[in-house]
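Reviewer 2 asked us to include a model.

Predict the structure of this chain.
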Amino acid sequence: MIKENYLDVQKKVVAACERAGRDPKEVTLIAVSKTKPVSMIEELLPLGVVDFGENKPQELKEKYEVLPKDLKWHMIGHLQRNKVKYIIDKACMIHSLESLRLAETIQSEAEKHQVIMPVLIEVNAAQEESKFGLTLDETPAFIEQVAAFPNLRVSGLMTIAPFVENPEDNRVHFQNLYNLFIDIKQRNIDNVSMCNLSMGMTNDYEVAIEEGATMVRVGTGIFGARSYPV
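Predicted model (structure tokens):
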């Protein structure tokens, strides 16, 4: 069933790209495997799936250690500074940079491990009180500061849109983030590439793609509902 789910999501990604006049190769589908066992991830490997998303550093580290080394692990959850060391040489990208203190820790750990870590700046596009992330207005100045860290590469923006019944309700947030993304890209800031826009999840990834997402993070739509330990 997991394979079928993945292929179904992939078809919807292609259809959304076609509606928007985009090349499907521009969009990376990240299978969000948080809380899911290694056996479920292994079901997808014969399809050539390599991009997986995890919320917890410890879980990412554990899965990295037992699965093939050619997989790409995206750290998509809120990252505490004391957990950076677990994933700095294992994650292909951190999607949730939202404070200078976290940037400093990533820089320090990346320097120790002699790696360059691509990061996305987390933007709270809908300004929800319960969510992490910078406001749209705060983001450009923050990026200028982060660009000074030699072992970080600012590669774009990320947002977690509100959970809504109707995905259309999030279109405005995706549009606002895309406009900011283009604005920052046009500034040509050193050490800032602005090539990734990570937005859209199971509920609204098709709308996100229509509005310019280059990465969508789909968990429930592929692996089914998550079961959290009590």
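The radius of gyration is 17 Å. The chain has one domain: 2-223. We have added this to the supplementary material.
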